[in-house]
Amino acid sequence: MLTFYKFALSNKINLFGLMATLFIGQNKVFLPETDSTNSYAISLLKNVNCIEGTVVLTNNQTKGRGQRGNSWKADPSMNITLSLILKPGFLSSKKAFFLSKITALALYDVLTDILNESQFDIKIKWPNDILVNGKKIAGVLIENSVIDESLGWSVVGIGLNVNQTLFGALAETATSFTLLTGKTESIETISEKLYSYFEKWYLKLKQDKFNEINAAYLNHLFGINRLQNFKQNSINFKGTIKDVNEQGLLIVQLENGIEKSFEIKEISLVI
Ligand code: BTN
Fold first, then answer.
1. CA–CA distances in Å: residue 265 to residues 3, 31, 116, 117
2. Any ligand 1 atom below 6 A from CB of 127
3. Is the full-model pTM beyond 0.85?
4. CA of 70 to the centre of ligand 1 (A)
5. pLDDT tens digit sequence for 222-263
6. Is the CB of residue 175 below 6 angstroms from any atom belonging to ligand 1?
7. The ligand 1 atom nearest the CA atom of 36
8. For every residue of 89-127, which 3-state class applies, written as one string?
9. Can you tell me the distance from the alpha carbon of 40 to that of 46, in angstroms, rounded to the nearest whole number?
10. Which of 141, 142, 191 to mutate to test the pocket of ligand 1 (most atoms within 8 A of CB)?
11. What element of type H or E holds 162?
12. Would you say 237 and 270 are in contact if contact means Cβ atoms under 8 Å apart?
């Protein structure tokens, strides 16, 4: 069943006592179960005239999609699995990676809002994974349409582990709020925080605040300016992350001093 609903706004505070957003999360499509919120959002965009900021969310995502063709698994009713629908016509397709940067920054803000920063090491792992104490708590899959070299629509898919405690084969590399704090957290409250922080960064992007976004992203980037281990086609090598350019390429200084840029598909960072 498809449920569209709107939250009533009382001045600037929403039902959760948080800053109300202007448009992100003002319209919600809640699905008790769906294969992938990203796939559902894309079919909505192709079939109905949905407004910017609409969120597609589910309690049970059965075929969640991840980066590099991977799957994203989340236990039912334990985690955030949602997709934000955007119409970033103001953004050139060459600058599409800024959407990845602001999504990572919004997630970073949510984590620092909830977790005590002095106790937890919160980092963005290129391109836009979020790590806490070296383990992944959130992943992002962004899918775009391009019209005349600008973005037509974008679907920002976010998986954020909240109350799940068992990760099976991923136990060594995945974490959640509950595993970190020992407490059960409210999925709704965290989602509302996410809408609010995402909107803050999206409005900065709309105002062309590229330098501010770049600086914040690099400031929280895992491994920046430190020698790291990388893997390319099963070959390991060492290098120092220097930057992430406008196209989202990772700029790495190799041990011989030469700087090389890498695409997401080309290399992975070995933690
Ligand atoms: C990754 O780290 O590989 C990206 C994972 C993205 C998962 C989210 S969950 C909500 C949205 N719908 C999907 O099918 N994928 C994204």
1. 37, 32, 34, 31
2. no
3. yes
4. 9
5. 999 999 999 999 899 999 999 999 999 999 999 999 999 999
6. no
7. 14
8. CCCEHHHCHHHHHHHHHHHHHHHHHHCCCCCCCEEEECC
9. 10
10. 141
11. none
12. no
